[in-house]
Amino acid sequence: SVQNGAAGGGGMEHASAIFYGQNSVNGRPALGLVSHEVAHQWFGDSVTEKDWDDVWLSEGFATYFSALTIEHYDGRDAFVNVMKRSRNSIFNAEKRLAGVAVVQTKAWSGIPNGIVYQKGGWSLHMLRAMLGDGKFWAGIREYYRRYRDANASTTDFRRVMEETSGADLGWFFQQWVYRPGSPVVEGTWSYNAATHQVELALSQAQPGESYRLPIEVAIGNQIQKIEFNQKHQTFQLPAENEPPSVTLDPNVWVLMDARLERK
C-alpha cells in the first residue's frame, strides 16, 4: 500500500480490486503508484509474508518493482534518480528511528515506515547487483513459484535465492535486513605518476563493525571493482594517466552515505 493521507491520494492493494484515491489517478496516470499496487498482486497478495515481522517481503518488493517499472518504461537515468531519492529517504528515516531502523521488524509499532518500504527495496537492488540479473531473476521467479498462494518468511526467501544462485547469502541478509543503520564512507584519492596508480584511502565512519561492501570505482571513464570490508582500507588501482575524476559507486548500486575528495 501507498498512503498519502486523507486528501484522496494513495492506494491499497486489495487482491484483484485495487483501490486508488481519486487525486492519485486524475490527469496523468500515476505510474509509480499504479505499478506499486499492481506489484502487490504478486508480492503481498499471492505470496504473503508469514508475519508482520516480514512485511518488507510485501512493501519492499512493491517499492522496488515500482522502480523497475520506471527503469523499463523511462530508462536507466530515471530509474537511478528514483533510487537516489529512495536512498536519501532511508538516511532520513534512520536518523528518526535510530536503533530500530531494520528491514525485518520486531513489533507492529511504527509499521509501516520508510525502512520497510525503501530499505527493503534497496536490499533487493543490492542483491540484484551482487548476483547479476540472470541469477537474481531466476531466484525471484523460483521464490514466486514456490510460495504462490502461500506464506513466506525472510528465511524462506534467502534460502531460495541461495539455492538458485549457489551463493552463501547469510552475511548479506545479516547486514542489510537485520542490522540497523547504513554504512557511512569517507575517503580521499590521489594519483601516483611514478607507479601509474590511483591511491584510494577509505574509512567506514558508522558505529559498530564494518560492512562488507563490493563497490565499483570510476577512474575517469574506466570502471574497476573493490571489496571494502574494513574500517580503514587503502587500494592501489591502475591508471595509465592522471584521471580527471574518481567516483565511488557511479552506477548507484550500494546503499551508503559516501564522500570522496581529492587529497
Structure in words:
Helix content is 41%, strand content 22%. It is built from eight helices and eleven strands. The strands form four sheets. It has a four-stranded mixed sheet with strand order 9-6-5-11, with no helix packed on it. Strands 8-7-10 form a three-stranded antiparallel sheet, with no helix packed on it. A two-stranded antiparallel sheet has the order 1-2. Helix 2 packs across helix 3 and helix 5 packs antiparallel against helix 8. The N and C termini lie far apart (46 Å).
Helix and strand topology:
Layout: E1 11-12, E2 19-20, H1 22-25, H2 31-39, E3 47-49, H3 56-74, H4 76-96, H5 114-131, H6 133-147, E4 150-152, H7 154-165, H8 170-178, E5 184-192, E6 197-204, E7 213-219, E8 222-228, E9 232-238, E10 246-248, E11 257-262
Parallel strand pairs: 3-4, 5-11
Antiparallel strand pairs: 1-2, 5-6, 6-9, 7-8, 7-10
What spatial order of strands do you see in the largest sheet? 9-6-5-11
Order of helices and strands: EEHHEHHHHEHHEEEEEEE
Structural class: alpha+beta
Estimate the helix proportion, in percent: 40-55%
What's the quaternary structure here? single chain
User: What's the pLDDT, averaged over the residues?
Assistant: 88
List the main descriptive attributes of the protein structure presented here.
263 residues; alpha+beta; 3-stranded antiparallel beta sheet; 41% helix
Quick structural gist:
This protein has 263 residues and is α+β, with helices and mostly antiparallel strands.
